[in-house]
Input
Amino acid sequence: MSPWPPVTYESRPWTSKYASNPATPAAYRQTQPEYSAAVPASIGALGVLLSGATITAVTDAAVAIARLDTALGSEIAPFASVLLRSESAASSRIEELTASARAIGEAELGGRQGSNAASIVGNTQAMSAAIALSGELSIATIERMHHALLEHSEPVIAGVLRQEQVWIGGGGRGPQGATFVPPHHERVRPALDDLVVFMNRWDLPVLIQAAVAHAQFETIHPFVDGNGRTGRALVHALLRNKGLTRNVSVPISAGLVSDTSAYFDALTAYGQGDIEPIVQQFAEASFVAIDNGTVLVDDLRLVRARWAETVSARSDALVHRVADLLVRQPVINARTAADALDVELLNVLPAIERLAAAEILVPSNLHKRGRIWRAPEVLRALDDFAARSGRRTREHRAAPADHDRLPTDPALTPRVPPPSL
Output
């Protein structure tokens, strides 16, 4: 096996898209010099070389992910969706899209919230699509995930591979001087074909495969917008496809957002041919995410236990089912609650009113046609989770002195697809 190949670059001619418009100022209409666009290496069949320290860290992280997934498997109803929403919010936060848990919940119901909350809702839909489509890792799957992300905010480009050059940083006149210029659009589909080959391999430890696939996806940058969020959703599709997670989405983005500089530096290092930093970031982010997610789950368990003591009713009473719903969907109206629980609207109203009388639910008067209710304790737990995501909650592991580079251990990953695939 050889070291990981760096991204190379090719010269491309550049003509401003404003050149043919006589009303455009001359500075924008002029033909610009050539620019350099990235050419991603083909990674479909590449072997992976990592230090022993990184292999140890990523192995421990994979075990911890699997342990959390198994532990929450018996409680999948309340915690699968709340962790998915938390991961979506954290992923959006990396793109500097932030909103309170209340704003996000109200946006899910169609409330008039800011664009950030709506964008985060779109990211939740993309994450959900990633899980639902995880049985097939393909370009079509990636396109459908991107469509779910942007179908409401940017429908023209949603799910459409770009047909133009994009660039990061450097201003809007052209790619000259940009921080990074992704591949020319003619290279996007072939590069994604190669990425799909890599993702469908079964000879790599899954978390290493996810980290590398994510970095390669970000290098390709196949869409005009939404690449970061789609790329992080793709991680969860891969983890689910390989069977490392079966029940919940471990909020890895909540770990990455705690040190975004290191995350972006790791993506830069990947382009230079060093995959070690991005794999290390995914391992460390997994530990941070598990710690943070475990605190969130414990907080929600305590909240639900207090509610059970506050509201006295038969164990099969509808009020308890509504309370269970609030743990995973803390902003509701009567219609969404009735639909979620598959009961008549008139039957769910008394349960909501009983929870409101116990101050478990608080009304919001955003809509004249129907009142929205929120569960403040759950929203507070979610906001606390987001606040913890902004800082490291786990000490960095010290690397051992031995930095010999070792091939990844094939025993750390299944060699054949599970029967369900």
In short: Residues 392-421 have pLDDT under 50 and may be disordered. The first strand starts at residue 8 and ends at 15.
